[in-house]
Amino acid sequence: MVNHEQPDQPPHNPDPSVTGEYLPPDAAPPGSEHKTRNGAKGVGAAATGLGLLALKFKGLFAVLLQFKFFFIGLKLLSLTWPFLLTLWLYVVFFGWKLAIVIILLVLAHEMGHYAAFRAYGLPVKLPVFLPFMAYTAGAVPADLEQDAYIALAGPLTGLALAATCYGVGLALHDSFWFACADLSAFLNLFNMIPVPPFDGGRVIGAVWPALWVFGFALFIGLAIVLHIPILFVLIIGLVGLPSMISAWRGHVDPRAAMMTNAARLRVSVWYLMTLLGLIVVMGQAHALTAGIRGSM
């Protein structure tokens, strides 16, 4: 889920100037020259050893640098109370194994938004976990098409992760990976519902905001079929209702004036392709998971 807001700027703290008086070293005592040479040899040997070690493992360092977003993700899992509360609730409702899987899937989704903000050169904060939801706050792009692609980056990342889990499941013949693919596709497919504050709502808002009414009806229908808690439905309704009322009254996003028909077509194609990909992966993974369980 994407939340556009300008991150706070860090305070400017210039380093204070340091003044002092240069004092020459004392004269070296007799016999210190030999110790100095031996020390220099020891330092040189240590430096040589470290250099060889760095050369030996430079490939490993290069690989680790390519996974900088992985280390950013680890930073997100710090012991903050919203994250701990979220994890505890997931454990209570789903058990600790499924709770960890859900946390990692949501993290990957939000890191997709984070990477998209960075790709467009926009300031962005690290994702925030809240009970049963998460969001990534970043600056508002001047282009509504970019806004749509930033919103799509989360489900696209979830689709890539679902497809990867599906491939691992095929290679290992392990139902666990099929279940992960099924869950990742489902969570991201749910987030594609065309109503705010879901990612699908932001995408459709760039194409035709009138579809939000259809999206809200779809959300209510899915909430009834899937037995979604009424509290979650109310929260989504309260968050998305202002945008829908504004669109109903004819208040249009000023950036919509710059959206050409070609841009709307591009966004629509990406939305439908992502939607179709999630449906296919979820269907295949769900069928294989059920088949494996049935054969046991």
Secondary structure topology:
Layout: E1 2-4, H1 32-56, H2 58-66, H3 68-76, H4 81-94, H5 96-119, E2 128-130, E3 133-138, H6 144-172, H7 175-190, H8 199-207, H9 212-225, H10 230-248, H11 261-295
Parallel strand pairs: 1-3
Antiparallel strand pairs: 2-3
Which key features would you list for this structure?
296 residues, mainly alpha, 2 domains, three-stranded mixed sheet, 11 helices, 3 strands, 4% strand, globular
Secondary-structure element order, N to C: EHHHHHEEHHHHHH
In this structure, how is the largest beta sheet organized? 3 strands, mixed
Q: Approximately how much helix is present in the residues?
A: 55-70%
The tally of strands reads: 3
Strand proportion:
under 5%
How many domains, as an integer?
2
Mean pLDDT figure: 78
- Can you tell me the overall shape? globular
Q: What is the overall number of helices?
A: 11
Termini separation comes to 38 Å
Biggest sheet, strands in spatial order? 1-3-2
Low-confidence segments, ≥5 residues, pLDDT <50?
7-29, 32-66
Structural class: mainly alpha
| Integer-rounded radius of gyration | 27 Å
Describe the protein in words.
This protein is mainly alpha-helical. It has two domains: 68-139, no CATH class; 143-296, no CATH class. It has helices spanning 32-56, 58-66, 68-76, 81-94, 96-119, 144-172, 175-190, 199-207, 212-225, 230-248, 261-295; strands spanning 2-4, 128-130, 133-138. A three-stranded mixed β-sheet has the order 1-3-2. The longest helix is centred in the C-terminal third of the chain and has 35 residues, at 261-295.
